Amino acid sequence: MKDIFIFGGGKWGLALGYAFSYKNRVYMLSRRKLNLDSIDESSTESPFKGNRAGFIKQIDYSDFNTYYKDSENPLCVIAIAMAFLREFLEKSAFLHDKNMKIMLASKGIEQDSGAFGNDILESFFLSKNLCYLSGPSFAKEVMMALPCALAIHANTDEIARQYALCFPDFIKVYIKHDIIGAEVAGAYKNVIAIAGGICDGLRLGNNAKASLLARGLVEMARFGGYFGGKIETFLGLSGSGDLFLTSNSTMSRNYRVGFALANGEKLDKILENLGEVAEGVYSAKSIIQISKKHNIHTPIALEIENILEGGEVLVGLHRLLKQTWK
């Protein structure tokens, strides 16, 4: 049984805490008070529900070092939104142990710098101790102990395997080695999910939706391929799996942003009502900055960014339909 420290008390951080608590001692660290008493209240007939051998507990940041030093071979998980990741690390001096083992569970691209999660983490920690979680996984369903499959990307099997063994039986884990591919897919799928929400919000039909997602996958792979991402990553759990999930469900924050935009709502009001970070809003801008710099053809992302900046949804749609696709 491992000691796992999770930084970030949002829905995804809590879901991972719940999942890891099946086999491990989990310590949650968050700026806000978490309601861990209700963590088992989700009703489901999943055969994996219950039977947890470990536990989940919230501790204060000030107590982290005490718990961490008393642990044998502890593992850390960061589930902080990408927009705030660097700031969090810069202000968390207690984390600046280069030998810490860390799994990043956040997806996106840092604004302005265009940095991916691995770029940020590797400026603080040793790359051999880092790994990256990806794949189709709604927090709500993980909390219900419903089966899913995820991928852990790392430079070496050793660090990925340590985390993989900690997951409960209802989560199947694949170990992969395409970090940049997973990073690109995790960021890009959120942008396409906004487009998916717009498509459904405009009631464009199944033909349009299938075309959008197929071309979105091509666009994602083209962008990622420029940086060395592997096509198998974009066709697998980290790419198409996560893309299809987040582009088709109201459980996706980015989908809900797109759906609301299609119905004439303003972005600032949408985000206020959402109450959570929709990473695609940030990633769209970063993707367009990068694609312009490197001359990468990203028409869907471009139109989504135009819409997020106040452009008309129908104007963007007509521009896409007039595109000569590559």
The neighbouring-strand order within the major sheet is 3-2-1-4-5-6-7-8
Strand residue content: 5-15%
Number of strands: 8
Overall pLDDT level: 93
If you compute it from the alpha carbons, what radius of gyration comes out, rounded to the nearest whole angstrom?
A: 19 Å
Distance between the termini: 51 Å
- Uncertain residue segments: none
The helix count comes to 15
Overall body shape? globular
H/E element sequence: EHEEHEHEHEHEHEHHHHHHHHH
Largest sheet: 8 strands, mixed
The helicity comes to 40-55%
**What structural class do you assign from the helix and strand content?**
alpha/beta
Which features characterize this protein?
326 residues; single chain; alpha/beta; eight-stranded mixed sheet; 15 helices
